[in-house]
Design goal:
The N and C termini lie far apart (46 Å). Helix 9 links the parallel strand 7 (173-177) and strand 8 (199-203). This protein is 29% helix and 26% strand. Helix 1 (4-28) crosses helix 2 (30-39) and helix 9 (178-187) crosses helix 10 (209-219). It is globular. It folds into three domains: 4-98 and 231-312, ANL, N-terminal domain (Rossmann fold), CATH 3.40.50.12780; 107-228, 3-Layer(aba) Sandwich (Rossmann fold); 320-410, GMP Synthetase, Chain A, domain 3. An eleven-stranded mixed β-sheet has the order 6-3-7-8-9-10-11-15-14-13-12, with helices on both faces. The chain has 13 helices and 21 strands. It is an alpha/beta fold. The chain has helices spanning 4-28, 30-39, 60-64, 68-71, 100-109, 111-117, 131-134, 159-169, 178-187, 209-219, 331-340, 369-377, 380-383, and strands at 82-86, 94-98, 124-129, 135-136, 139-140, 149-154, 173-177, 199-203, 223-229, 233-238, 245-246, 252-257, 269-276, 287-295, 308-312, 320-321, 327-328, 346-353, 356-362, 388-393, 408-410.
Length: 413
């Protein structure tokens, strides 16, 4: 439990780090200097944590549209930084750049929650995520910390193959995307050898109450839910006592903003906006995640003096059912397509029926036929002759009535 005096010291530290970050961005990062000048804000204007509201909000597209040198601190060569290409839960692919020290700090941001969930030194860990996002220099995220042996399983594999690899790994601690593990739970009856981890730790997608029950029943283990991003790291995680999520990461400031840009009150839903306090190479200051969340109590009823989130409403991924009965994770389609077309600014993958899938994409300029054919060729063998895959260039991807984009949509019952 965090005592009041400790909480005050944490807040003072966060203010000092925020002021240092803003001063650094103003002096050394052209993108943020321009944004702050346009907003009429100087680093000295940040005198309290609440003054963060003076800073302009940044969208992923604002950063992605700029050359790397404009969003990276002067004196650093973007080509020499650790670069991670996200698959884009928001439908907007993006390259994250950090120094090696910052990359290690990002990995370590998850560690306190993993330990709280039950991770032990020497555990066999299996992680079911998108492989290119989960691996650093070919090594799994947790293995980089030197505590455990880790098997990384590509979440885009077919369920029988994932189950086979998990059964071989015999994990004590299982990590994965909530939707993928729920899908596995529905297939577990077909597995020849059961997978019996001590704990199942989920992140990356919305965990519904039904999904939690199914995963716990299939793996005979408690589920611990964490919320974080590739850009920032851990943001919030399960409280076992209250059922809420603690917003407890010391390395970030998390805001939940209503449509009129005020901070949400308890029970109100708004957009998640995050500032990473420890990343200076390519900062994220008031960065809009395009996730929706509902604000919980200002201090958790368990006694910990952390603000809380009642539930996360964003980032749920649908599986696609094929005419031959297979279920494909959308990353099986998106991974090759995004790799073949780094010029894609925004996308939406829609399964209109079991035999029709469309990739809608936004790009500058027209889409010529050779590009269209190249994109189709990346998935032809995967989908097979019974599925029609078409590529459409569109001027924009429409948001839902709530303002959130849906990059992956299945219209199949």
């Amino acid at each position: 439990m965090v005592r009041r005096g400790e909480q005050g010291a944490i807040e003072d530290s966060r203010l000092d780090r925020l002021r240092r970050l803003v001063a650094h961005a103003y002096e050394r990062v052209p993108f943020y200097r321009e944004r702050l000048q346009l907003a009429g804000v100087r680093p000295g204007d940040i005198r309290a944590i609440d003054d963060i509201a003076l800073l302009p909000i940044t969208d992923k597209r604002d950063l992605a549209d700029r050359p790397p040198g404009e969003i990276t601190a002067s004196g650093l060569d973007p080509a020499r930084l650790v670069a991670t290409m996200t698959s884009g839960y928001s439908g907007e692919p993006f390259v994250i750049r950090r120094t090696r020290r910052e990359q290690t700090r990002w990995a370590r941001s998850w560690l306190p929650d993993l330990l709280a969930a039950g991770l032990r030194s020497g555990d066999r860990v299996a992680s079911v995520f998108a492989v290119r996002e989960e691996r650093t220099d070919g090594v799994g995220l947790l293995e980089t910390l030197g505590l455990v042996s880790e098997t990384v399983v590509d979440c885009a594999e077919d369920s029988p193959e994932i189950i086979r690899q998990l059964a071989k790994a015999r994990p004590d601690f299982l990590r994965g995307m909530a939707g993928v593990l729920e899908h596995l739970a529905n297939s577990m009856a077909e597995a020849e050898r059961p997978i019996c981890p001590r704990v199942v730790w989920v992140s990356g997608e919305v965990l519904t109450p039904v999904a939690r029950r199914r995963i716990e029943a299939a793996f005979a283990a408690p589920v611990h839910n964490a919320y974080g991003t590739h850009e920032i790291g851990l943001l919030a995680s399960d409280c076992r006592d209250s059922g809420l999520m603690h917003v407890s990461s010391p390395g970030s400031i998390v805001e939940i903003l209503t449509p009129d840009n005020r901070h949400a009150e308890e029970g109100e839903t708004g957009e998640v906006v995050v500032t990473a306090l420890d990343f200076f190479a390519a900062p994220f200051i008031r960065y809009r995640l395009k996730d929706l969340a509902t604000r919980g109590a200002a201090a958790c009823p368990c006694g910990a003096r952390f603000p809380t989130i009642a539930h996360i409403d964003g980032r749920s991924i649908d599986y696609f059912e094929m005419p031959d009965g297979r279920y494909l994770h959308p990353y099986r389609i998106l991974g090759p397509a995004l790799a073949a077309a780094p010029w894609i600014r925004q996308y939406q993958l829609v399964q209109e029926s079991r035999d029709r899938i469309v990739l809608r994409l936004v790009r500058e300029g027209p889409l010529d036929e050779s590009e269209r054919r190249r994109l189709r060729s990346t998935v032809d063998s995967l989908l097979g002759p019974d599925v029609r895959f078409r590529v459409e260039a569109v001027p924009r991807i429409a948001a839902t009535p709530g303002g959130k984009s849906r990059p992956i949509v299945s219209l199949v019952e």
